[in-house]
Amino acid sequence: MRSIKFNPFAPVHVKNFERVLDELFTPGFAGNAFNGQRPLVNVAENASDFKLEVAAPGLKKEDFKISVEKDQLIITAKQEKEEETNKEKYSRREFNFSSFKRSFHLPETVDGTAIAANYENGILILTLPKKEEAKEKGPRVVEVA
Fold this sequence. Notes:
mainly beta; 145 residues
């Protein structure tokens, strides 16, 4: 856990400079697909389901683990890369680890047993279907007796 320093009397340019330094020297900054941050997620709802779009470029579908525990949808990804360069006079070996974890509270209207996922063009798309009783139904005409 990183402590945050707050100085309300510091000039704005000093605060911005400190923020930039914090971002630059965050562990895993160089080459990390997520820069120590969680990926952005879009959530959309329609009559029959919810759609979650997770921006996670540079990963493969094998890097993801998606699970449902009680009323939580948990998405994790872990990527490990190793680069090695051997030249005449030197050898270089670099390791890069990037990972994230996102969890979402599932409403009671979602059928957790029928969640589907697809990864394409750097976007993980999850479809969370609604239970039959929660789906919107068209207007019903009531006859007067």
